[in-house]
Design a protein that fits this description.
The protein is mainly β. The chain is built from 1 helix and 31 strands.
Length: about 350
C-alpha cells in the first residue's frame, strides 16, 4: 500500500478484520486499523492535576451527515473528514479526505439550513486540512501527497503553491495554522519515535521561502497557536503527545520546547487540535472518538465524547473548530457509517485562532 510505504506505518488488523491506515490526519489522516466501539471507552491520557476520573465528560451531539460511507479503498471501507474552518460567509468548510472519484473533496455546510454544497473535486489528492488565510481570504489545503493548494471559497482560482521537495525532501503536508501576518505553519507528517523525522515548517503568506521551525518529531500532526501567537501546540500522532513550542520573536525558530501532555491511545493517536480564547487546548484522539480538553498547564479539564449509537463504530475524530465569538464547537467525525459533524459547547470562547488563525466568521 502506497501510504504504508511512504510514511512507514504498517497495516494493523483487528476487531472485524477491516484495515485502516493511520497516516496522519489532521488532522491527518489516515488510518487504519479496525477500531471497535469499545475503544472509545478504554483509555484516558496522563495529565497534571489528578485522576482522569475526577474530570467531567461532555457528550457531543449529532448535527449533520455530510458524506455517505465511501466505497472500499486503500484505507478500508470508511469515510474520513478533515478541516474544518468557518469561512467569511459563515459557512463551515471541510475536506472529505476519502472522497472517491466523482464526489467533492471540499464541501461547505450551511450551519443555519444544514445545506451541503460541493466546492471542489480532487480525486488524486489526500486533503487533510483546510484553513482560510487572514492575508488573502483564500482557502489553503494541505495534501499528504506533498502539496499545498489554494483557491477561492467558491472553488475558482485553484492553484498549487507548494509542491516537490521542501528543504531537501518531500513534505507530507498535514495541518496548517496561520499567524497574524498570514504566514503558514505546516506540520510534516513523517517520522516515528524510533526515527523522528517529522517537521514544522513556516512559509511566507504566499507559500514561498520555507523555514525549518522544528524537527525531530514523530508524526507531526495538529498545530495551533496559543492566544498570544507566541507559541505553538503541536501533536505527535505516533508519540502520543502534544508539545509546547515557544517561538522566537521572528517566528523562525523554537526557544526552549517541552512536552505538554501525554496520552495513552493504544492503536489511536493524537490528531488535530485547537485552542480557545482562554488558552485551553482541545486535542482530538483519533480512533477513540474523543476530544481531550487541557488547560495550558496540562490539567485535563474535560473529555468530549462522541456517543457510539450508530450501527458501526464512528471513532475517527480528526479535527474541530470553535466558531469565533461563541462557545459553539464543531467536530468532524468519520468511520464505518459515513462522515458527520457533531456539536459541543466549548469551555472558552472561539476566536480567530480557534479557526486556525484564519479569516473566517
Amino acid at each position: 500500500m502506497r501510504f504504508a510505504h511512504d510514511f512507514g506505518r504498517g497495516v494493523a488488523r483487528r476487531g472485524r478484520h477491516r484495515t485502516i491506515i493511520a497516516a496522519g490526519v489532521a488532522g491527518v489522516l489516515l488510518i487504519a486499523g479496525g477500531v471497535t466501539g469499545a475503544a472509545a471507552e478504554g483509555s484516558e491520557p496522563a495529565h497534571a492535576g489528578g485522576s482522569a476520573n475526577e474530570t467531567k465528560t461532555i457528550s457531543a451531539h449529532l448535527f449533520a451527515k455530510v458524506a455517505p460511507l465511501d466505497p472500499p479503498g486503500p484505507l478500508g471501507h470508511i469515510t474520513a473528514l478533515e478541516g474544518p474552518a468557518f469561512g467569511p460567509d459563515g459557512k463551515l468548510y471541510m475536506v472529505h479526505s476519502t472522497a472517491p472519484a466523482g464526489r467533492p473533496s471540499v464541501i461547505a455546510l450551511d450551519v443555519r439550513t444544514r445545506e451541503i454544497k460541493g466546492i471542489h473535486q480532487a480525486s488524486a489528492s489526500m486533503y487533510t486540512s483546510l484553513q482560510f488565510s487572514p492575508a488573502d481570504g483564500k482557502i489553503y489545503l494541505t495534501d499528504l501527497n506533498g502539496r499545498i493548494d489554494r483557491m477561492n471559497p467558491d472553488g475558482t482560482g485553484f492553484t498549487t503553491v507548494v509542491s516537490g521537495d521542501v528543504l531537501g525532501r518531500r513534505l507530507a503536508a498535514d495541518d496548517i495554522a496561520f499567524d497574524r501576518d498570514g504566514a503558514l505553519f505546516v506540520t510534516d507528517f513523517q517520522g516515528t519515535p524510533w526515527k523522528p523525522t517529522g517537521r514544522v515548517i513556516r512559509f511566507d503568506p504566499d507559500g514561498t521561502h520555507p523555514t525549518l521551525v522544528m524537527d525531530g518529531l514523530a508524526g507531526a500532526n495538529g498545530i495551533s497557536f496559543d492566544p498570544t501567537y507566541s507559541a505553538l501546540w503541536v501533536s505527535e500522532f505516533r508519540a502520543g503527545r502534544t508539545d509546547y513550542l515557544p517561538l522566537s520573536a521572528d517566528h523562525a525558530g523554537v526557544v526552549d520546547p517541552s512536552v505538554g501532555m501525554y496520552g495513552n491511545e493504544g492503536v489511536g493517536g493524537f490528531d488535530s487540535n485547537a485552542v480557545d480564547a482562554d488558552g485551553n487546548i482541545y486535542q482530538c484522539a483519533f480512533g477513540d472518538g474523543k476530544i481531550y480538553v487541557y488547560s495550558p498547564h496540562g490539567a485535563l479539564l474535560t473529555t468530549i465524547v462522541v456517543p457510539q449509537t450508530m450501527p458501526a463504530p464512528e471513532l475517527l475524530t480528526t479535527n474541530l473548530v470553535i466558531k469565533p465569538g461563541t462557545h459553539d464547537g464543531y467536530l468532524v467525525v468519520g468511520g464505518d457509517n459515513g462522515g458527520f459533524v457533531y456539536t459541543f459547547r466549548a469551555l472558552g470562547l472561539g476566536d480567530a485562532q480557534s479557526n486556525g488563525g484564519g479569516a473566517g466568521a
